[in-house]
Amino acid sequence: MGVLDPQHLLASFGAVGLFVILFAETGLLIGFFLPGDSLLFTAGLLAATPATSAAHLPLGQALIAGAAGALIGAQVGYLIGRRAGPALLDRPDRPKLQAGVRRAELVLARYGHGRAVVLARFIPVVRTLMNPLAGTVGVPAGRFTLWQVVGGLVWSLGVTLAGYVLGTRIPGIDAYLLPIIAVVVLVSLIPVAVELLRARRSS
């Protein structure tokens, strides 16, 4: 995974890195390729390692940094969409970006504002694009803020705590981080595959 390896990122930058990456993934369109799910899960695993371990990350710091990055990033993304959404999202020269926009629009149309904003948190790429898209299409600010906070907390705290619980139940789990992260990434892509399949069938 190179520089985007979650373990490398957390070992190098700690809770600050966790905050910055989640902020970028959920608030800036350039962050759609960042490993949000696997980073949160890995932070939970590292929080379960002994405090004397060089890779240890305090659970409180991981939870606060993850939640803050997810919530502040989403709100910034929404504000960007309100002010400059069409120019940023209408990019035929970026096919991956356009595919993500279509998936985000599909989720928004299928589930409505509240459920779509919450569900988007669990779909890679879509969680990056949903926030500026919500601002662009005029989702009321109060409604967006309410549901992005709900979804952001469930996602960031839930994934981090899942990693922590697994880490405390299985001694030496940090030795298997790479295969576990690979599984987390694959699982996180399932909703994308399901939505693409539905879109193809409906078309």
TrEMBL record:
Residues 34-164 form the VTT domain. InterPro entries: DedA-like, VTT_dom. Keywords: Cell membrane, Membrane, Transmembrane, Transmembrane helix. The chain crosses the membrane at residues 12-34, 63-81, 144-164, 176-197. It holds the Pfam family VTT_dom. It is found in: Cell membrane. It is a multi-pass membrane protein. One of its GO terms (cellular component) is plasma membrane. Belongs to the DedA family. This is Membrane-associated protein. It comes from Quadrisphaera granulorum.
